[in-house]
Amino acid sequence: MALTLAGLAADRPLGLRVLTGDDLLDRPIGWVHPTELTDPQAFLEGGELLLTTGLALDEGTSPAYVRRLVDAGVAGLGFGVGLSHGFVPRSLVSTAAEVGLPVLEVPRETPFIAITRAVSRAVAADEYATTVRIGRAQQELTRTAVGKGGPAGVLRKLAKLVDGWVLLFDRTTVTEAAPASARAYGASLREELERLRTGTRVVALDGQEVVLQTLDTSARRVLAVGASLDTAGRHIVNTAVSVLSLALEQDRAQAAARQALRSGLVELLAGGQDELALRVLATTGGEPPESPWSVLVVLGTPAARRKLLGALEGEAVFAAPSGSAVVAFGSGAVVDTVAEAALRIGGLHGGVAGPVAPADFAAGLEQAELAARAAEAEDKILVSSAEHTGRGLLSLIDPVVAQAFAHGLLAPLREHDETGRGDLETSLRCWLEHHGHWDVAAARLGVHRHTLRNRIRKAEDLLGRDLDSPGVRAELWVALQS
After folding, report:
1. Together in a domain, 258 and 146
2. Fewest CB atoms less than 10 Å from the CB: which of 125, 144, 293, 334?
3. C-alpha distances in angstroms, 33 versus 74, 79, 212?
4. Does any domain span residue 132?
5. What's the DSSP call for residue 352?
6. Which domain of life is it from (predicted)?
7. What mean pLDDT is reported for the chain?
8. Are residues 300 and 382 in the same domain?
9. Do 273 and 299 reside in the same domain of the chain?
10. What is the distance between the alpha carbons of residues 352 and 357, in angstroms, rounded to a whole number?
11. Is 272 exposed, middle or buried (0-12, 13-18, 19+ CB in 10 A)?
12. Are residues 43 and 19 in the same domain?
């Protein structure tokens, strides 16, 4: 930290006495400049402690002299007494108090060189501390980037090092934030981001300085840093920009390699090479999902498919691009995970088949793709292969028989709905269409999932049948299609 006027005045061996500006002593001293010129403005940069014995000053010339120093932006004035002046001119003190210029009285026993040395030592110490801080920060940022922290870890480390907040943008969308609450600043910076093409821009936000810096990546990425940056802080941000650019490009290359590997594994499975595919997956550090698998094929725009792959990253789902689709498979809640992600993203249509053994993956994939085409044609989020296949079976049933069966089976629901007490038939149809997925079906109906659960429970009571039974669901689906 730079030496301030207060710190210098507190140095007892110097014997300095504060005459004016007690409330302004927190000003940092950039350097010391002794001069007897009555107008030294041309030789000043601002922030100096000016030292003088006042050889050319008196009560009449002192006020104008003080105002010239204020215009030059000096930090303060050190006036040496005991040589040309027995005391600091009264007009100088009163004017300095009026315009806000700190004045320190320097006793005859204190040579100006002693003050210069004190400031010089402080400046050197400050520069050394800055160098050490920058070096340590560079090491910490580099270790974080090459370790497990990755880009997100670099942002968290940078926010801590500059004592501020940091955002990472992909164009105008926030992709990372440190701390998480800093995401709230993203919308306020969007207009500035749209104007920024390359380089650096400094803007004001809520009274705080924000630095926007483009990164050297293939995608248009921008780093935003909200903090009061000193010299070390600016160097640290520059280091973070370089480290982040490398880390993001490395992540992009690794992600592309992972996707290519997964696409290749899907091709092996589809070609009946399940044992080879599982060996390759295990060799490359992947853990194959426990079989049997539910297989999903999801169709949509390239942008929507990329978002889906990003949303499934880190989930207990194997997902890979395959032609103009995303193929996913896994056990357990894999269908719910994919369906919920597709619902959030929008514009996606999926088909699901299985569960199948790895050796039967090709058949499951074909069935899921046919179901996905049906979902796309009917603008549905998810269609199961069983549902899609069942529609073909309806053509084998006599329409009169099918209608009589439907009337008898669904009569309790229709009687309930006709009284205006609910919409059970539509809710049941939607729930079955979406493979029993509560969140997806509720979203399609525009109701809360708890409302849908209550409706399905009511339908189950009226029908007197167990809707968890696959056979019951199949019968109800046939009835609803008749």
Report:
1. yes
2. 125
3. 10, 12, 36
4. no
5. E
6. Bacteria
7. 85
8. yes
9. no
10. 14
11. middle
12. yes
Angle (CA) 98-99-105 rounded to 5° is: 80
What is the secondary structure of 417-454 as a DSSP string? HHTTS--HHHHHHHHHHTTT-HHHHHHHHTS-HHHHHH
Of residues 297, 291, 294, the one with CA closest to residue 358: 291
- Please count the other Cβ atoms lying within 10 Å of the Cβ belonging to residue 400: 9
Three-state DSSP state, 133: helix
217-235 average pLDDT score = 83
Residue whose token pair is 């010129």: 37
| Tens-digit pLDDT profile for residues 319-335 | 888 888 989 888 867 88
Say what the pLDDT of residue 471 is.
73
Q: Is residue 473 part of a domain?
A: yes
If we measure between CA atoms, which residue out of 175, 165, 173 comes closest to residue 190? 173
Q: Which of 258, 284, 310 is the last residue of a domain?
A: 284
What confidence score (pLDDT) does residue 388 get? 62
Asked if 352 and 294 count as a contact pair (C-beta separation under 8 A), the reply is yes
Q: What confidence tens digit (pLDDT) does each residue in 449-463 have?
A: 888 888 888 888 888
Mind listing the pLDDT tens digit for each residue in 280-301?
A: 877 776 677 788 888 889 999 9
Contact 43, 36 (CB under 8 A): no
Q: Indicate the pTM of the whole model.
A: 0.48
